[in-house]
Amino acid sequence: MVYLQKAALTDGRDVYEMLQRIPPENGFLNSCYQMDWAEFPSWLAKRVNMAQGIGLEDWQVPSTTYWLMDDGIPVAFGSLRHRLTDALREAGIAYAIDQISDLIAGGVEGIHLYTMNNPDVAKQIAGSIDSIRKV
User: Fold this and answer.
1) pLDDT digits (tens, 9 = 90+) for 49-76
2) CA–CA gap between residue 123 and residue 99 (Å, rounded)
3) Quick one: residue 31, left, alpha or beta (phi over 0 = left, psi -120 to 50 = alpha)?
4) N or C: which end of the chain has fewer CB within 10 A?
5) Phi/psi of residue 67, each to 5°?
6) SS3 label, residue 64
7) Pairing verdict, β 2-6 and 73-81
8) Is-contact 97 39, C-beta < 8 A?
9) Which phi and psi angles does 16 have, rounded to 5°?
10) How many degrees, rounded to 5, is the angle at CA 57 between CA 77 and CA 24?
11) H or E stretch at 96
């Protein structure tokens, strides 16, 4: 069975070893990669604290780390931010605009936006790509 498991202070060597098999590449971050086992408990505690909003820098927001488990074996991981700052929101919109521009330049026939029930985001993106869209 596949399920998500929230990071916990009791997570052990199996999670650590999974994290050692996932290199940071193609924009995916893994600050635990190539970390010594002795450093893992403090790294894990920081992740657990981040979920509770403890020890964050001014620019950070709370985020929860999850392990993707397959029959009790950790196989992947990810983090979900609890909210966005204005800077993160704008960076995400800029990234979406860049992706859409590349798709249009490559000849894609249509774009479908999922903007999490936020019409202002859709309007901002549509306005930014208006000059390169084909009618």
Assistant:
1) 999 999 999 888 999 999 999 999 999 9
2) 16
3) alpha
4) C
5) -100, 135
6) strand
7) unpaired
8) no
9) -55, -45
10) 30
11) helix 86-105
**Alpha carbon distance 101, 48 (integer Å):** 38
Q: Average pLDDT for residues 2-8, to the nearest whole number?
A: 97
Task: Give all strands of the β-sheet with 2-6 in edge-to-edge order.
Answer: 2-6, 63-70, 73-81
C-alpha to C-alpha distance for 97 and 84, rounded to whole angstroms: 18
User: In 19-36, which positions are buried (b, 16+ CB within 10 angstroms) versus exposed (e)?
Assistant: beeeeeeeeeeeebeeee
> Does the pLDDT of residue 39 top 90, yes or no?
yes
Task: Give the CA radius of gyration of the chain.
Answer: 19
Side chain identity, residue 28: F
Structure tokens at 112: 């479908």
The pLDDT assigned to 134 comes to: 57
The span from the CA of 110 to the CA of 104, in Å, is: 8
pLDDT tens readout for residues 121-132: 888 888 888 777
Quick one: tokens of 119? Answer: 């019409």
